[in-house]
Description:
By secondary structure, this protein is α/β, with parallel strands linked by helices. It has one domain: Rossmann fold (3-Layer(aba) Sandwich). The protein is about 35% helix and about 30% strand. The chain has nine helices and twelve strands. The strands form three sheets. The protein has a six-stranded mixed β-sheet, sandwiched between helices. Strands 2-1-4-5 form a four-stranded antiparallel β-sheet, with helices on one face. A hairpin with a 5-residue loop joins strand 11 and strand 12. Helix 3 crosses helix 4, helix 3 runs parallel beside helix 5 and helix 4 crosses helix 5. The chain is globular. The chain starts with a strand and ends with a strand. Bound molecules: adenosine-5'-triphosphate (ATP).
Amino acid sequence: MTTLHAHDVSARLGGREILDGVDLTVTPGLVTALVGPNGSGKTTLLRTCYRALPVAAGMVTVDGADIASLRRRALARAVGASTQEPVSLGGITVRESVRLGRTVTRGLFEPLGADDAAVVETILARVGLTGLADRDVLALSGGERQRVSIARTLAQQPDVLLLDEPTNHLDLHQQLSVLALLRELAAGGLAVLLTLHDLRMAVEYCDAVAVLHRGRLVATGAPEEVLDAAVLREVFGVRGQVRAGPDGRRTLDVAGLADG
Length: 260
Ligand SMILES: Nc1ncnc2c1ncn2[C@@H]1O[C@H](COP(=O)(O)OP(=O)(O)OP(=O)(O)O)[C@@H](O)[C@H]1O
């Protein structure tokens, strides 16, 4: 099982410091939601964790190894990222797009075999894409494309799964099924970190939340511990609280905007 750590990570974009000394652990077996207001640095932090953006200071490690020094294929085996970038330019089918996830951990001339085809079919089925497998990726809705991006990352079979807003184009049924799939994968030992705007989803479906505010990680831990009235007010500007129901399920009640 593989743990990803961001150690005292700072990042700069356009000459501005976007992240400032972030320490975050992405633990195997848990689904961790990275939450925070617009512009707080969530996507930037995620990008440093899969080396799409170099850190200005600090280090990201997987099982103790600095990802800056990993070879491309070793990094792809350790860390997979589903981003908000378009899944491909088109002209390829959903199945072919998901197959691309198998190639990133291979050499250029290492052909895919029957095992790879079986993995692709299993993942297409798990993400509910079997019926769309022969469609051109450009002929899909936003939500369908989002699932292709997730499926392609899963096809990579990484130990740490990073997802940038994996549910933002999905209808409620698909949102819940993606979150259920992530929980299932985490139960199998994967470390999962996803950015999420929907705090209710984070509270109800994630094991842990990490709160970013103005480029700093202000709290991390179980949702009911982290999202207290003060954090909801000061970071998110709302009045609210996390409640535990009699069945043990957590819910987030938001009463309205915080004063001022
Ligand atoms: N290329 C860039 N150059 C300069 N600043 C940038 C660049 N990209 C992003 N930023 C700034 O970095 C900050 C953090 O952006 P980021 O996308 O990480 O935030 P976020 O928390 O993911 O936001 P959102 O919830 O709106 O998606 C924002 O203030 C944004 O304007």
